[in-house]
Give the backbone structure.
Amino acid sequence: MGAWVDLKSWKRREHYQLFRRYQQPFFSVTVDADVTAVWNGCRKPGAASFFLTSLFLMLKAVNDVEAFRLRVRPRGVWRHDRVGVGPTIRRPDETFGFTRLEPADRLDDFVELSSAAIARAMNGSVLKTSKPADDVVYHSVLPWLRFTGYSNALPGHDSIPRIVFGRAVPDGRRVKMPVAVEVHHAVVDGADVGRFFQRFGEELERGSVSPERRIKASDR
């Protein structure tokens, strides 16, 4: 569900018209996110995995920032009511597959809904396990690298945000994880990226695994 943005009254109309014509309209920002609370919480007995917990909290932050739900289409700009996430899933043979995960209000619901989709992508042989759509944000993880900058391979015909997590490592008494966000400048500005990181930071700070968010270890 969603609606068209009224371009005639939209305050970013001129910005949209400028950047949508660019050959490469995406820009990228990388920030070290403090994931200490979630990192420690996910190591408690019965807690969900760090991967799914951080993905759940990231998706909550994405949906709270309207600009991350805007998409450039031939007719104009479409505003989704909410978006899912399309992560890459690593397979045992060191290739990967794509899948789609839907947002949820509770972590345990998100884990339950996501597990089957992840298993299909992990054990399958096709690259994609869902139909193409733009009501998602793309997501990848590079657990081997603590990078300071990142850029994605771009097809040149979409405006879908890309969010990439790097390796989480100790930094003094904290645990930090690089998070790269790449967005289309026709619909997303630097202030919007700042709002995303603020919301994600808030979710990470209070997102340690509380009793009502815990799941059975066998469900991970």
Notes: Helices lie at 13-19, 36-41, 50-64, 107-123, 190-206. The longest strand covers residues 174-184. The longest helix spans residues 107-123. The domain at 28-219 is CATH 3.30.559.10 (Chloramphenicol Acetyltransferase).
